[in-house]
């Protein structure tokens, strides 16, 4: 190993010409994944990163051990009831992956069974052991895990490289044997017919866009499978699922701003799909079956969405059920026989609203903390008066509740255990404090920030801090609890989440003001949040590290160019830093479907110029950049590994005084390492680097 950065060959540059603009890319050769020189370069970068961080090996081991010590390694999830079984997942100390199980419901048993210290339940049946499936593989991920309505079959799919291309299999749960028929190269999403004879699944096109729904008959060869639906418009992708009522197979077709839903009666799997409402550009809707009607959650004349219904037998006009309320974003609706539960967000917080069927009454479920996240968990039973939900905050571990829809009683079933830390003390939320603060953006917009720190952390600018951001796809970074984060908090580090535009925290308008030709609001909001933390005395710029992943990695690259003085370090994980090059290439995975998020620079010179003005790789200059740690994965199909590889190479070339590291997982995908211990080690690596940057190593 060496502490000298590996040389990067500046080969004959690739020329890109669009709208009269010529761009030379001297590092384009790094996109050749199968070339020995590319792999050798990535290996050399990994060796350099390991050498440059060798002094942190002890701290990494310490952080990993703290996470392991605080985690109940042998554990059991709260069982979920479906018909005559309780379904749950167990983890075992020393094993990387979960064990998926079920146990028959016993006479008179209404509450989910529990076990001491995560031990197997008496009489359990192991459906799938991820550790056995992963044997001999460096990476393992489940795509589908779908038990048939009669409880006999399990459809499951596996990925052993991280490229999210799964092999689908069917297991007979009465014999424990898998059927000989298997389907390679499938995507997420499956649905069973009512009689469990037929399985619907999804495949992708050459650009890895999910575009086809297939029908497979259990026990037959995949060569006999039939295409049920094919989407030829490259802006759209497809999915498939079975309604909770088990009455309909739903084919969901979406672009970024338009949707269309087709249904097939689950009792007639060979029937032709029927459209619920033909697509109209800019109109999004989702369908949930409820008795004689389809519930329609839509944005037709309703920016933050409204709820309507139409006949399930002959879909037509949409009859209003919940009118549009600006500022209250309706996100989904779950239908049960006697109740509807609407997931929503208002004032930057998530919420749940209950609507009894046949009544004008409705109510929101109350929660005590000022900052929190709540949402429905798995609720597979349609005929029930009780729903399962999950609750967490920056200081409250993940909590599972059952809520009685009739009595309105909330019963805590389990809170994720947090075992004593290195000092032997039990975890106490009172040792920490969480806050909601607001920054003022350049255009006067107030941007919320969620913060958590050890109680008593000084507010004189002396404390180090990490600020996390995302800001794309209307994805909200709602407060979440992290055991690994405790190691930072206990070392005096403040953790902040910037709820910037481009996300969905404050409704659809918040998203619209951070996309397309307003994308730069995402970046300036984040910088405003960083500046505010310093101005308010939370931290100082020489003790502030920014962190983001994927589209949040684009954010990291953009703010590095925009305000390099605002941070002492930047962590960019699987970062989308060569956005313009990727969005110009429709042959790449996801590109065409992304045009409604970023714009189409191929056809629109204004979009081209706008994207070129912010995309990180295009805008590296000779400047004093903060230290940068870029983490990527060789088999990532969402953000290709060569984007951060090229970015780091260009940073070293144009701003050689900076400290830049590239770490590539050579056998993983977009989510990084798959096993829980491997992911803990990855997090320990990042956190050790952060602590080193802020002087707390």
From TrEMBL:
Sequence ranges assigned to domain Peptidase S9 prolyl oligopeptidase catalytic in this UniProt record: 480-694
Pfam family for this entry, one: Peptidase_S9
Keywords annotated in UniProt: Hydrolase, Protease, Serine protease
SUPFAM superfamilies: alpha/beta-Hydrolases (SSF53474), Peptidase/esterase 'gauge' domain (SSF50993)
InterPro entries (alphabetical): AB_hydrolase_fold, Pept_S9A_N, Peptidase_S9_cat, Peptidase_S9A, Serine_Peptidase_S9A
Alphabetical list of PANTHER family matching this protein: PROLYL ENDOPEPTIDASE-LIKE, PROTEASE FAMILY S9A OLIGOPEPTIDASE
Protein name: Oligopeptidase B. Serine peptidase. MEROPS family S09A
Organism from which the protein derives: Micromonospora tulbaghiae
């Amino acid at each position: 190993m060496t502490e000298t950065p590996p040389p990067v060959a500046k080969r004959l540059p690739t020329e890109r010409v669009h709208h009269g603009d010529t761009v030379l890319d001297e590092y384009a050769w790094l996109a050749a994944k199968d070339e020995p020189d590319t792999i050798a370069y990535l290996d050399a970068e990994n060796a350099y990163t390991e050498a440059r961080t060798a002094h942190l090996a002890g701290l990494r081991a310490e952080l990993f051990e703290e996470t392991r010590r605080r985690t109940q390694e042998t554990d059991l999830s709260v069982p979920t009831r479906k018909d005559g079984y309780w379904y749950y997942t167990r983890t075992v100390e020393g094993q990387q992956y979960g064990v998926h199980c079920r146990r028959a419901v016993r006479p008179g048993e209404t509450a989910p069974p529990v076990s001491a210290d995560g031990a197997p339940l008496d009489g359990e049946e192991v459906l799938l052991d991820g550790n056995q499936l992963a044997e001999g593989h460096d990476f393992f991920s489940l795509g589908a895990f779908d038990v048939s309505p009669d409880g006999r079959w399990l459809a499951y799919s596996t990925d052993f490289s991280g490229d999210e291309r799964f092999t689908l299999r069917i297991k007979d749960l009465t014999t424990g044997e898998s059927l000989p028929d298997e389907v390679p190269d499938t995507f997420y999403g499956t649905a069973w017919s009512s009689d469990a004879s037929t399985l619907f699944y999804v495949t992708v096109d050459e650009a890895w866009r999910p575009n086809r729904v297939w029908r497979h008959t259990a026990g037959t060869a995949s060569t006999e499978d039939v295409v049920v639906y094919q989407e030829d418009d490259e802006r759209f992708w497809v999915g498939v699922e079975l309604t909770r009522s088990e009455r309909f197979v739903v084919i969901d077709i979406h672009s970024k701003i338009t949707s269309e839903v087709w249904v097939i009666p689950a009792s007639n799997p060979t029937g032709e799909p029927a459209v619920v409402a033909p697509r109209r550009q800019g109109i999004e809707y989702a369908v949930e079956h409820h008795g004689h009607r389809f519930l329609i959650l839509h944005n037709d004349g309703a920016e933050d969405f409204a709820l309507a219904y139409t006949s399930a037998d002959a879909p037509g006009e949409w009859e209003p059920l919940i009118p549009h309320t600006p500022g209250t974003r309706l996100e989904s609706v779950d239908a049960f026989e006697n109740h509807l539960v609407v997931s929503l967000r208002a004032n930057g917080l998530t919420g749940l609203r209950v609507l009894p069927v046949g009544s004008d009454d409705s109510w929101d479920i109350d929660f005590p903390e000022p900052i929190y996240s709540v949402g429905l968990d798995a609720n597979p039973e349609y005929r029930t008066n009780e729903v399962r939900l999950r609750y967490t905050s920056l200081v409250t571990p993940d909590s599972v509740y059952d809520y009685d829809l009739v009595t309105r009683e909330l019963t805590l079933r389990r809170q994720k255990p947090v075992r004593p830390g290195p000092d032997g003390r039990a975890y106490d939320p009172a040792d920490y404090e969480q806050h909601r603060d607001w920054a003022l953006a350049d255009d006067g917009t107030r941007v919320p920030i969620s913060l958590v720190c050890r109680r008593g952390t000084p507010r004189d600018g002396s404390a180090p801090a990490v600020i996390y951001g995302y800001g794309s796809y209307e994805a909200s970074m709602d407060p979440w609890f992290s055991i690994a984060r405790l190691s930072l908090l206990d070392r005096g580090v403040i953790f902040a989440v910037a709820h910037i535009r481009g996300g969905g925290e404050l409704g659809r308008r918040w998203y619209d003001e951070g996309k397309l030709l307003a994308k730069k609001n995402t970046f300036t909001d984040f910088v405003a949040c960083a500046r505010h933390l310093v101005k308010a005395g939370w931290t100082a710029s020489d003790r502030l590290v920014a962190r983001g992943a994927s589209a949040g990695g684009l954010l990291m690259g953009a703010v590095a160019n925009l305000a390099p003085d605002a941070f002492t370090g930047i962590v960019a994980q699987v970062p989308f830093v060569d956005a313009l090059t990727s969005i110009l290439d429709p042959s790449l995975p996801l590109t065409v479907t992304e045009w409604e998020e970023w714009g189409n620079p191929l056809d629109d010179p204004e979009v081209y110029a706008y994207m070129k003005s912010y995309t990180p790789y295009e805008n590296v200059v000779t400047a004093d950049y903060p230290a940068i740690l870029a983490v990527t994965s060789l088999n990532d199909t969402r953000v290709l590994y060569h984007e951060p590889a090229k970015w780091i190479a260009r940073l070293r070339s144009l701003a050689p005084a900076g400290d830049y590291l590239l770490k590539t997982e050579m056998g993983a995908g977009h989510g990084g390492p798959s096993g829980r211990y491997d992911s803990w080690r990855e997090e320990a690596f990042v956190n050790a680097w952060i602590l080193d940057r802020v002087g707390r190593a």
